[in-house]
Amino acid sequence: MKNKTVYIASDHAGFKLKMQLLKIFPKLADLGTKSNESVDYPDFAHKLTKHVLKNKENVGILICGTGVGMSIAANRKKGIRAGLVNSSKIARLIRKHNDANVLVLPGRFINTNEAKKCVQTFLSTKFESGRHKKRIKKI
Ligand code: RB5
User: Fold this and answer.
1) 0.85 cut: is pTM over it?
2) Does residue 97 carry a catalytic annotation?
3) What's the mean pLDDT when you consider all of the chain?
4) What does DSSP assign to residue 87?
5) Which residue intervals of the chain are DSSP H helices?
6) Superfamily of domain 6-137, CATH level 4
């Protein structure tokens, strides 16, 4: 899609995986963090969700240690549907059923290859709409 930007951000616990994913997917727009130095994950969740919400086509990838802190923080924002994923099967379903616009990965509990498959699947799967649209409207 023409105007689609895929953002990525992490805290220190997700930094290593973020750098590995940036090597595999160099077009991802990196919003930090920039090192292993300890930071607060909500700062990065808020930064990324702000960018994602600027355009309906945008999506994001967030990484912290467990993925839970990033999920909680991101889902506080109206219009954000963030799904915590540790397998490509779930990555497919958060797009098909939940129209998720943010993929959350648990940096300390997923290997690079599985994370790569999650990103590929998340970016290539379309929302199924139909019965799922009505459910999303109820959120
Ligand atoms: C950082 O140590 C860790 O708490 C954070 O990355 C995340 O797992 C929080 O949910």
Assistant:
1) yes
2) yes
3) 97
4) S
5) 12-24, 41-52, 68-74, 88-96, 112-124, 131-137
6) Sugar-phosphate isomerase, RpiB/LacA/LacB (3.40.1400.10)
